[in-house]
Every structure is written in C-alpha cells, then in structure tokens.
C-alpha cells in the first residue's frame, strides 16, 4: 500500500536504525571479518580465505553437534506442540479460572534462563535434589552427570517445563478468537469432539501454530544457557549443542577464526531452516 | 417437521429475577404450526434471539417448557433436538470442500455414503452451487459462504425445524432478493417448519406466513403480513412495520366518531369506553388520501424516494405522513381524508375492537 | 469544493479505482452508491488523504492536496463500526476534537451542547459509550464528526450495523444535520433505498468507476446506462431483450411495443428494455402492454406483493398493490407501464429522448 507521504516518519525510525546497526550489523560484520582471517594475538591478522569454513564444514565435531541440535529441536517440537494444544483446549474459556490459569501458565516464562538451569541442576541432583533423590529412592538409576540418556531426558524435560506455556498461550489466543456460532453450528450438525477439533479449532489455530512452531524451533536450535548450566555439555559431549561448542571454540580455545566461521554457518542454517519451515507452512495454509 | 409448543416460557439472564424487567423474555405461550414459516421481528434487545436460542436448545429457559410435536424437549441439547440453524455470519468448515460441508451433518449421523451423495447433489442443485462443489470453502465470498450455511441447514430432510438468525445481514442487496425468494421456494417445496429472526421488516414480511412481532421481551402480535399492516394490535407494531410507520394522533371518542382538534372523523364502528386511558387514532400513510376535500393540512416537505413520494404534513399541530404514487402531485390547497378501512383506535397503545 | 481529477488507484496490480473525476460542492450531501467491493471505501480513503492515488490529483478549493497526509486536511470520518473512546464519557468523546484543537472551555461547552441537542444525546452525556445502544453509539460518533467542523465529512455505511427502524430515524435526521453545517458530506452505501431517502447527489460506482453523478432522483429516473440502472435498483431492474424494427420493439411471442416518438432515432436492431418492478402490474391500464411470464414465488409485504417471475430465461420481479398470492408455476399476463420504460442500446447506453422534430 502506498500511503500518503510523510517524510517526518523517517526521523522517528532513525534511532531504531542506529540501534540495530550497533547491536546487529556491526557485530555481524566483525564476525564476517574474523571468519576470513587468522590471528595469533597481538592484533595481527592474516588472510585465511574460506579455510575456516571448509574446516568447520568437514569437522566431525561440528556434524555431531548439528545432529544433536536437530534431534533436540525435533523432540521438543514433537512434545511441546501437541502438549501445548492439549492444555490450551482444556483451559477454561470464561469465569474465574481464566486469570488463574493464565498467570499460572506464564510463570515459567518469567524466570530468567540461567535460573531455570540452576533450578533444574539442583532439582535433578541425586544427593540434595528432590527429583534426583526421589527417583533413586524409588529404585531408578538416574544420574544426569554420568548417564548421557539421563542428561538428555533432563534437558528435554526442562525445556518442556520452561516453554510449553508459550505454545499454550498462543494456542489459547487462537482458540478464544473463534466465534461461538462455530461451536453452536457444530453442535447442531452433530459433530463429535474430534470433528470440532479437526475442522474448527485446528484450522482456526493454524496461524498461531505457525508462529509457535517457528519460535520454538528457532529458540530450541539456539539453546545455550540451560544445558550449559545443568550439564555443561556433558557427560562427554552428549549435550554439547552447536552454541555450546561455539563458545568452547571461541572462548575456551580462543580460536576466533573458526568460531567466527562457525557462527556464520550456524546463523545461515537457522535462517535457512526457519525459511523452509515458514514457506512450507504458509503454502500449506494457502492450500487449506 | 414438527409443531412447536412454547408453554409459558420465561427467561432471565440473571440468577434470581424478581420483577418483570429482570426478564429478557417475559412470557411466551404459543403454539406454532407444523410446516409454518414464522418470522420473529423486533428491534435489538426485544428478546427475539433469546427465544430462538431457547427453541434451538442453546439456552434453557428459566421457566416453562418447549415441546416438539408434543414431546418435551426442554432439557435436550441442540444436537438431540434434530434441528438445523443458520447463523448471522457464515459458519463454514474452511478446510472442507463445499460438498463435504454439506455432507458433514449427514455423515455425523452415520448416513450411508450413497444416500449422502444423493442428498448433497440435490441440495447443491437447489442452492445453485454445483459449479464449485469441489472447491475448498476457504476464500469464497461472504455470499457464497452463507449459501453453504443455508445448504447445510437444508440438507437433512427429517429435521424438526430450521432456524435462521438474521441470515442475510452480510449479503449485498441484489443477492438478498435471490436468496430470499429461493428460501421461500424451498419452504413451499419441502414444507419444513422454519423460524426466521430478523430486525428487517421486508425480510420478515416477505418470508413468513406468520410474523411474530416482539417488543420489550414480549410478543405483541402474531399475524399474517396483511393483519400486521391493516390491524396492528399495538402502536409499536404500527410504528415498526411499514415505512414510514403508522400515524398516531391523539383523539377523543364521541360514539362512532373520533374528535381530532376541531375535526370529527367517522369510525368504522363505535369503540368501547376509554375512561382514564390515552386514546389515539392510528392510520397508515397509505390510507391517507390527499386531495381538495376533507381536513386541511400544511405541508412541510415532499420526499421523492423514486417509486413513491412521502409527504410530511401537519394536521392540527400533529405530524402526518402521507404516501403518494410516483406520478401523483400535491394540490395547491391540500386537504386529507382518512380511509375508514385503515382506521384503528388505541387505548393505552393497545388496539380496541370497534363494534358495528 | 473537493475535486478529484482523473484519479486512479492500483494496488498489487489490481485496479481499485479507475479514472474517477468528481466535483463535490461545499454544503452538499453526496452519496456513493455501489455494491460491496465497487470501490466506495477506496475512493473515500483517497478523498480523506489516507491513501495516495496512483494517478490523478485531489484538489480542495482549487488547491492541489494530492500528497498531503490526512492530519493536514480538515476531514472527519464515521465508520460502519461504532468507533468511540470507550473510557471517556459521551461528553468527552464529543469534545475530543475540540480539545485537540485547543478550544477554550466556553466554546467546548457550547459546541458539545449544540451537537448533542442535534443528535438527541442530551440525557446520555455522562455515560460511557459501552453503556449505550448501538444507535446512540453511532450518534456519538456522528456528533464528534460534526463538532470538528471539518470541511469534508466522510460516512462509510454508518447505519449498516443498526436496526432497521433506527436507521430510518437517523436517515431522516441526517439531511437536517448536514444542511446546518457548510461541509461536504460523502455517504457510502450499498442500498438504493438509502440513497433515495437521503436525497442530495448520488454517484453510482461499479468496479472502481463512477458510472454517473447527479441529483439522486435524476440518476434514479434517468440512468445513463444499464450498469447504473442496475446499481440503482432494489429490487433489481427487470430486463427484456428485444429488437427494434420499423418503429416497433419486436420479439417472437411478445406483442409489439410501439417505439415512442422521442426514441425514434434509435438504430434498428437488438436493444434491451429495462423497467422497474412497480411498473409491472396485474391490471391493464392506459399505456400498458401485456407480457406473459411464469410465476416462481410470491412475497407479500402486507399491503403489496412482490411476484417473482420468469420470462424466457430472465428473472423479473413485479411489485403490485394489494395481496395476491399466486400459485407457483402459473403462467400470468402482466402489464407493463411503458411510460417509465428505459431503452438501452447494443452497448448498454441509455437511449436519450430526443425532442420531437429535432
């Protein structure tokens, strides 16, 4: 839409543009700069071309971390989306229960990420943690520090606990926007509970679900803080996701060049996958 | 198809209604014929939607019973009442094709697929949507979506009643004419009991055999369009039906005459005593004859509305609307006479019987 | 005066407005009449300055304001939805444009008083809009538009969400309200009957084009073409395809209709006759011609009957006085009053009467 001109509007946008430039564009350029050079400290740089990129792309360590990320995102999407829809469907639509449920649902979202990590780190400990201790007392051999499977379960349960609420709230917003007439018509048409979900609720939630899946995918793919706090990427490399690997490379080993190349590849993967997700779902949406 | 009995129905949205004003529906006690086409007509807030929801089962009345063919259905859910309903805004299942939309209520009731196909094909032909039967309902215009809703209402042959809740609100004027006459045709053909809620008099009058006029939570008159036009039983009916509505003039009665200021108007019959009550004479603009004889009037304004002219006049200081044909003209020294057939007398807003 | 000079609007490759030129005088009421999506709202947005036309100019009192944003123009707008400030009282709602303009207290009091009297909102000034009926809410929005003393007031189907009788009342009051201010009023509607009741001037719109602009009754009686006639007919205009042949309109199975003298200049060949439902009747009269048609369904309004007919494959509607419940499927002889006949040529243009002897 070409609206009537008003050049003053651009002045309003200016501060935002500057902010974005400082916070995103300039750091990104720095990263690009590092990714094609080598340094041994002392502020001396040597041209490295695409070496770092080919190194990273052919490194098994990178492949493993990428696979872990994809597996992790896949699992949490498979759990959080259906679970979120299920909870949203069962939340009250009116009455006193509404504010109560909404506040209750929002609580995990309000906790800072590193605190979430800390909570679960303590919660899962077998000596003093309520969860870890109880499980062991019940005879389960649970120890996220030693056992890769247990570490995965802990990280996934933590993420589900932390983020399912987001899916719930988005779905709930979609559900309450459906006019009553639809439910009434379905009742009169003799539709089953499943039909109501399949033909009314799901189609009307389509758009918010798209947003939920995208957000959850992007966030889970970039997950860092919580597993870092809980498992530190271990045991071994079992929960070393791309972001953790990246930090290990950049800060732990101070390999700025490879780390920069890795960040860019990481960034491009997220961009690409998000785009694929979005396109697939939007085309699906258009087809109906 | 069923007869609908509304047995002393009252409804309040608040928990403990005490006074009459607390009721959205004050007292409805009527019996509606099997196969009749009824329109519930009234301004917003008159209780017509409440009554419709009570019939459909979306609402349980605070008091009273509702019976379909003598069977008490008061406690039954909408899906147990075997009715169909068309809503104000088109309700379609977006992800289904047009024909699947129509088949939906049939399949939900476990009808054999061959039978479903046959029935859907019939309805598609009736509502003229055969061309787009296999299109997804999403993205169709409001007109078409509402046609689908109508079709879903008509698809079950065995329903007790089909209910319409202002179904033509979102439809363009030209399309309204088509859909309305189509509905009427379908009613003639299949004889369903139909209940149609609207605030538009043209829709109500043209659709229904019997129009139920509601005002302030009460039914003020049930009658054929002709009865509502010629013998409105309440001044509200006179005002709400007809445009412009009925002229209402304060009079005093003198036997078979009514006195309006210095004029005496001959009534079709003598009215009973109206002591202590507000007495008024009602006459529709269509029954006022403008000419050179009768009572003198002053003319404020003549509105040319195309096929008619509406004359805004004053008689004895009271407003009087007169309807003229497209080709008629207003005389220089205007007088009016009232057609006795169109005169009604009201005492405290309710129509009085005029004796011979 | 507001002037649109060859205005077009294309958006996403779709033409919403095509080559519209229009001149609206101060102190007039102008109706934009057309079905949904005919371009009424797009045109109003351009008039208001909310959208910039793709081509063409917008002039106010001869001054080019094409690129000027809406804030710089003196415009008020009322929408189909009742838009008021929900947290403010009716009084504050009406006063809001004056407060923004920095009017003093006495002026505000006077103007709000005047507008609320005009729209009969006096008893409700201290209520908030959500505690009012739909009609009162829309009156509040109208009052706000009026106190603004805008040079241009745009009303986009303002009565569409109201009860039928409320509409009738407001419709009767609106011309009075309009005539008191010297502003240009533009009123969009889909309903021909609404245009006729409002009076003033009417511009008929079809697919983004203005097909005719003039005094409302003139456009109704003498549409320039078939599209205009159809846009301005409710019930829809009845059509009959015939052929002009040696001073007569002829068609197999239909009695010849003598071509009126003033239309004798029409070229021989196919043409279309148009007539409105109330020009058909059951009884013959002076200057009527009989036509046969099949009855589809009859609708009775209490004093009149709408008889839906088919003639060949054409759907017709007859509006006749009295109660006539005619059986469906019956063949009927109906009588056409030829005095109000419209004749359209091959291209759908109305054949204009030529004074006899010219």
UniProtKB/TrEMBL annotation, chain A:
Domain ABC transmembrane type-1: 66-277
Keywords, alphabetical: Membrane, Transmembrane, Transmembrane helix, Transport
GO biological process: transmembrane transport
Entry keyword Transport: yes
PROSITE patterns assigned: ABC_TM1 (PS50928)
GO cellular component, one term: plasma membrane
Compartments, as annotated in UniProt: Cell membrane
Family: Belongs to the binding-protein-dependent transport system permease family.
Protein name as annotated: Carbohydrate ABC transporter membrane protein 1 (CUT1 family)
Species of the source: Hoeflea marina
TrEMBL record, chain B:
CDD domains referenced in this protein's UniProt entry, alphabetically: ABC_Carb_Solutes_like
Organism (species): Hoeflea marina
GO cellular component: ATP-binding cassette (ABC) transporter complex, substrate-binding subunit-containing
Domain of life, source organism: Bacteria
Keywords: ATP-binding, Cell membrane, Membrane, Nucleotide-binding, Transport
Record InterPro entries: AAA+_ATPase, ABC_transporter-like_ATP-bd, ABC_transpr_FbpC, ABC_transpr_MalK/UgpC-like, Mo/tungstate-bd_C_term_dom, NA-bd_OB-fold, OB_MalK-like, P-loop_NTPase
Family indicated by similarity: Belongs to the ABC transporter superfamily.
Principal location class: membrane
Compartments, as annotated in UniProt: Cell inner membrane
GO MF assignments: ABC-type ferric iron transporter activity; ATP binding; ATP hydrolysis activity
Record's protein name: Carbohydrate ABC transporter ATP-binding protein (CUT1 family)
TrEMBL record, chain C:
PROSITE patterns: ABC_TRANSPORTER_2
CDD domains: ABC_Carb_Solutes_like
Keyword Ribonucleoprotein: no
Membrane topology, record value: Peripheral membrane protein
Main location: membrane
Keywords tagged on the record: ATP-binding, Cell membrane, Membrane, Nucleotide-binding, Translocase, Transport
GO cellular component: ATP-binding cassette (ABC) transporter complex, substrate-binding subunit-containing
Sequence similarity: Belongs to the ABC transporter superfamily.
InterPro entries the record matches: AAA+_ATPase, ABC_transporter-like_ATP-bd, ABC_transpr_FbpC, ABC_transpr_MalK/UgpC-like, Mo/tungstate-bd_C_term_dom, NA-bd_OB-fold, P-loop_NTPase, Transp-assoc_OB_typ2
GO molecular function: ABC-type ferric iron transporter activity; ATP binding; ATP hydrolysis activity
Listed name of the protein: Carbohydrate ABC transporter ATP-binding protein (CUT1 family)
Compartments (UniProt record): Cell inner membrane
Residue intervals of the ABC transporter domain: 2-232
Gene3D superfamilies: 2.40.50.100, Nucleic acid-binding proteins, P-loop containing nucleotide triphosphate hydrolases
